[in-house]
Structure formats: C-alpha cells, structure tokens
Amino acid sequence: MPEDEFGEYSVLQPWTLNDFREHPLFMKPEDVPADISLNPHLEGLRQLLYADEPPADMAEKFRQMGNDYFRETPTDLSTQNALLCYTRGLEMECGDKALESQLYSNRSAVSLRLKEYGKAVDDARFALKLDPSNVKAHFRAARASKELGLTAQGLKFVDAALRQQPGDKQLGDLRKTLQQMLKKEDAAREAARRADEEASRDWAAAGETVRKLLAKRGITLGKPLYDVAMYAQQGGGKLVPLQSSEEEALQWPCVFVYDEHGQSDFVAVFDERCALEDQLEEMFPAVGTVDWDQEGKYVWDRLSAYLEYWEQKESRVKRVDITEALAPQLEGLRVSACLVFHILVRDSPAEGSFVNVHHLK
C-alpha cells in the first residue's frame, strides 16, 4: 500500500458517470431503483431516516409514499415503486389493523393495474380480515373477481360493500354488470344442461344396433352443435342404421353451414358410405343455384368442407376429404347425432380466415 507524509492510503478509482447516477446527491427521479436496498447509499439514507421512528409511523409514511407513486401517470417505474412502498409498509408489522388493511387494499389496487387479478383478490381478502368495513377492499376484490370470471364471488364482495355504502354509484354500476354476467352464465349453464339431456336422449333413441355400430368404430355422441328443432318439427332426420343393407353403415342427419353468408341447409338423410361431393353436387350443381350466392362462387367442385366435432368440452373442426366416403373419416370422433359441416369456397379469403381462427394447418 502506498504511503505519503500523511500515512498509508489506497488508490481509489476515479469518478465515473455511473457513480454520479447512483449517488443520491446527483440521482434523477427516473434513476431511482424500484428496490432501494440495491443501492447502498439510498439504503443507508433510508435507515437513517427511519431509524428512530415507531413501526406505525414508518408504515404510514410508506403508505403515503405508495399513494404518491400510484397517483402518478402510470409507468412501470411508478407502479413498481407503489408496490414496493406498500409491501415495505406491511413489513413494518406495526400492529395497526386499520392501517395494515389499507396497505393490503392499496397493494390490491396495484395488482389490478398490473392485471394480476388473483393477487388482487388475495390482498383484498387480507385487508377485509383486518378491517371488514374497508369498502375499497370489497370493491377491488369484486373487480378482480369479475376479471377472473368468478361472477358470483364478485357479487358477494360488491353486496357487502353496498351494505355499508348503499347509494354508491360506482358500486351500483359494478353490481349491475355482475348481475348481467351472472344471468348470461346461468342461461349458458341451463343450455348446456339441456344439451346434455338431449345428447342422452339421442343416444337412448339411437337403438341398440346404432350403438353397437358406433362403439365398434370408436364413435361417441356428444352434445348437439346446432339447433335443429325447427327441422325436427317438420319430420327432420334421425340417426338410423341403413335398412336392408348387407354392410354395416349409418344414415346421418346433417347441417351444412355457410359461415361466410350466415346461411345453412338441413339434410335429413346422408348415407355415410357416400362422399360429401355427391351431396354438394346435388345442392350446388352450377353457378347461381342459390339466391344468397350473388358472386356465383358456390359450385360443388370449388368447395371445401370442415366437420365440427367435440374434443373434451370444446368443439373443434377438421377438414373432410369430400371426394372420399365419409364413414372412415368419422372413426374415433365424438360428434353430435346431427353432423355439422362448414362449407367454404376453396382457397378463398373466407376459408383462409376460417382456418386461422380455428388454428388449422
């Protein structure tokens, strides 16, 4: 170690631009790190600033700092700083339930901004355990529950808040939205229940011969994919085995959907030994066969067909080779008792969009 007339000394590195940026005396607001403990100068100042203050006072200061950051124009930095301040306030473990409830509730608001809805609900719950009268915590829990699709839970939170502030417009508007969502969900559940019942009836009505044929080919019947009630009233088709046939085959009722035009056709009986092009040629033999095809694009040999089927609880589509018999293309699938085919003009923009939407290759 070098030495001079004043004694031994070490050779320090000269000041760099980063040294200036990281020193509290020269630091710009945008250079303040989200976690000040990463900067020894800032951490030292923080400890000096709060060394002799009671935990409750420190927690309150962190709450106020967090509020200041949260009120700023939202940026990644201001949001992170707000999150850090509320968390630091909770780390004080001040024992003031009302204050800690506010800190949890405010951190829930930050999570909402970050779209971390699960964390928002969790913090709101902690806030309410400490202070059940925290209306903002109820409101934030309700909003986060709504985004998570937990509509009934959201209604419980907002109703609890309205019992404390009955005339609050913001709470009332949120409750109205949640009620509308719940009504739609209830209707969807009821429709699904009816569809399950209808699928069960279809299976029971199919008869032993049909059930054996389906089981042999690994085909199962799922919920109806299309409402064919109006066709059934007109004596619509049923899934039945072919009569007086030496081959084991089925006759299917089918719906043909033309997504591009919002149109559809119902075919009561389709022999699965046939190719779809046979049916399409009968329906679209030449240009201008149907009124809704103003451009004359729908001609049987220009068309593509996609079968809609069930995969677990989601409907999927697969392309069908219209030149080949349908029967082997159904094997191993879960389909509705009335087959649904989406018909599009081959290589058209509408088909391209359909393929992209359904993630087909």
TrEMBL record:
Keywords: Repeat, TPR repeat. One of its GO terms (cellular component) is cytosol. GO terms for biological process: protein folding. InterPro entries: Csn1/TTC4_wheel (IPR044059), TPR-like_helical_dom_sf (IPR011990), TPR_rpt (IPR019734). One of its GO terms (molecular function) is Hsp90 protein binding. This is Cns1/TTC4 wheel domain-containing protein. Signal peptide: none annotated. It comes from the Eukaryota. PANTHER family: TETRATRICOPEPTIDE REPEAT PROTEIN 4. Pfam families: Wheel. TPR repeats lie at residues 101-134. Belongs to the TTC4 family. Residues 245-347 form the Cns1/TTC4 wheel domain.
